[in-house]
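INTERNAL TRANSFER SHEET
From: sequence group
To: structure group
Subject: Glutamyl-tRNA reductase

Please process the attached sequence and return the structure record in the designated field. Keep the field labels unchanged so the import script can parse them.
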Amino acid sequence: MSILIVGVNHKTAPVSIREKVSFSPESMPQALHSVHQIVQENLILSTCNRTEIYVASHQQQPVDTLMEWLAGWHNIATTHLKPYLYVHQQEDAVRHALRVACGLDSLVLGEPQILGQLKSALQAASDNAVTGSQLNRLMQHAFSTAKKVRTQTSIGANPISVAFAAVSLAKQIFSKLEKQTALLIGAGETIELVGKHLAANGIGHVMVANRSLDKAQKLAANYGGKGIGLQDLAEHLPQADIVISSTASPVPILGKGAVERALKIRKHRPMFMVDIAVPRDIEQEVSNLDDVYLYTVDDLQSVIEENLQSRRAAAEQAESMVVEEVVSFMSWLRAQDHMATIRDYRARTENIRQEVFDKALSLLHNGKSPEEALQFLAHTLANKLSHDATQAMRHAASNGDHALLQHAKILLNLPSPATDNNGKHL
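Return from structure group:
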């Protein structure tokens, strides 16, 4: 069984490509079952910064098939998508999975949200019965490695995240936030973090818009703000100086027309907008409007870079820990390749035991004494169990295969002959 990862991330593909290959929660079950027709085990990780297919397969080279599947699923030409894709196999795949779980491959070094997203991806695969012992073990190993990295290094010591970067950028546009109104679109973990950072920086007023009005109101209440439904977004948009959006919508929520109308009502007072979502929540054309400062998740890189220095030393320590954990997992994986041999040997031994037992029992039923039946059982069982090994050792001895004989001594736990000081057998 081989481990394989095919995907794109923020390092290999711009947001315009990443949004085309993302998977919505609604489409995930069908996609997982579709991949399951190709390989034995799979899970799909889809976030704003990456889309990755994790696979355990008996096939030697399912790489091209998976690339074609990913492109075909999203109606993209394989030749167009292929330059942005990366492939990791076996040890490299294990290393990549562990680095992803630890936040070492994230846009924001060491960010913790990816671990929860990876756990959700495993849960979705498990719920749809498309994963198994190999990927389950890999994911659990990744989770334990991430926990080890977080407890034994300071990689998560400082608040650096996409949410933190978005608020930091807002502070660069508006030197003080006390008089500003922020409109947050969505109600997930990222938007919740944005709200916390805005509140910590003294934001004047917060509105939260979400498809579920109840969720919007509950989240807004944490900041003394107002919750609204998405259908009321255009009505409240003119009040917003800062708009930060992160939803799982497959289509844009804010279009150019709605923003143009809001700007007229605002008398062209500037609006700062950050679209963290992939696919994007705000139409790209909005960036062409005067008085709008629109940033995507890719634009936050420079802000994040300024805050990463404190985490780099911790990241180096974490990378060393990942190397050790990769070795540990690969040892387990190699052992699994030979489990079938062990199972076959035990099954054969059990068949011999049952066969000899049945014959001994037949002797008793035919009037033989218990002692005779036991003698037969012990003698026959010993002969049958030792027969193949004895024949193989005789053949090795006649052919001068000393290496096999030495391995046989180890495997069968036989004592080595005593030798004198010159190495001669005594």
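Handover comment: The chain has a mean pLDDT of 90. The longest helix spans residues 309-337.
Transfer complete.
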